[in-house]
């Protein structure tokens, strides 16, 4: 089976997804986006252009529809990070975004604030739920690649080879060394201490 030209990056969030999408923006034979269709519903939610890399953690809640629309005609990347680190990052943002929705609405918890220890438990539960949803979805897919934030630089090179990416690959490699959207910062910062 030939390599599909559309690629979906699935993840929990808080694992380098913005950074990866930004790095992929340096490819000339693919377009790339981060959560570009989140405002759409129905069929348009899955209508990405040909030769596009879509990075969107919210797709983990729409996997049945993603499978119906793309199934094995797309390639998939499972982007991960140490689960404890992801949960801690979400704990710092527990009253906003997807974690707030998970904690208050999906799990039907009405309290806005919970004790720190309990909030971390919700965050860990979210990370485990999303990770297992993605793993189940990917089990019968032919074109799957795992990437980890902890090894993102080497994984980017494997990804470039896997999809045959072209463009300013040195700029992509430089970009992957930055952290976009880090908790507690308003701009990109360098990885590391």
Main sheet: strands, sense, barrel? 5 strands, parallel
CATH level-4 homologous superfamily: P-loop containing nucleotide triphosphate hydrolases
Per the CATH scheme, the topology name is: Rossmann fold
CATH class: Alpha Beta
Percentage of residues in strands: 5-15%
The chain-level structural class is alpha/beta
Q: Specify the number of helices.
A: 7
What sort of overall outline do the alpha carbons produce when their principal axes are compared?
A: globular
- Report the helical percentage: 25-40%
Number of strands: 7
Strand order of the largest sheet: 2-3-1-4-5
Second rung of CATH, namely the architecture: 3-Layer(aba) Sandwich
State mean pLDDT (0 to 100 scale).
90
What is the N-to-C succession of helices and strands? EHEEHEHHHEHHEE
Number of domains: 1
Rg value: 17 Å
Low-confidence runs (pLDDT<50, min 5 residues)? none
Gap from first CA to last CA:
43 Å
Provide key terms for this protein:
193 residues, 7 helices, globular, Rossmann fold, alpha/beta, two-stranded antiparallel ribbon
Walk me through what this model shows.
By secondary structure, the chain is α/β, with parallel strands linked by helices. It has a single domain, classed as P-loop containing nucleotide triphosphate hydrolases (Rossmann fold). Helices cover 39% and strands 14% of the residues. It contains 7 helices and 7 strands. It has helices spanning 17-24, 63-69, 83-91, 97-106, 116-138, 152-163, 169-175; strands at residues 7-10, 31-34, 52-55, 75-80, 144-148, 178-179, 189-190. The strands form 2 sheets. The protein has a 5-stranded parallel beta sheet with strand order 2-3-1-4-5, with helices on both faces. Strands 6-7 form a two-stranded antiparallel sheet. It is globular.
């Amino acid at each position: 089976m030939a390599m599909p030209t559309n690629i979906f990056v699935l993840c929990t969030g808080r694992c380098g997804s913005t950074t990866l999408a930004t790095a992929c923006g340096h490819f000339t034979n693919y377009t790339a986006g981060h959560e570009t269709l989140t405002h759409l519903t129905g069929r348009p939610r899955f209508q990405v252009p040909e030769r596009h890399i879509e990075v969107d953690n919210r797709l983990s809640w729409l996997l049945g529809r993603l499978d119906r629309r793309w199934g094995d005609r797309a390639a998939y990347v499972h982007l991960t990070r140490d689960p404890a680190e992801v949960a801690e990052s979400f704990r710092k943002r527990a009253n906003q975004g997807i974690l707030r929705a998970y904690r208050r609405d999906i799990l039907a918890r009405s309290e806005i604030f919970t004790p720190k220890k309990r909030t971390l438990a919700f965050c860990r539960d979210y990370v485990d739920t999303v990770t297992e949803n993605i793993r189940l979805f990917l089990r019968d897919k032919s074109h799957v690649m795992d990437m980890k934030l902890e090894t993102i630089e080497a994984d980017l090179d494997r990804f470039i080879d896997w999809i045959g990416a072209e463009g300013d690959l040195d700029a992509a490699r430089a970009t992957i060394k930055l952290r976009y959207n880090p908790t507690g910062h308003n701009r990109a910062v360098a990885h590391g201490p």
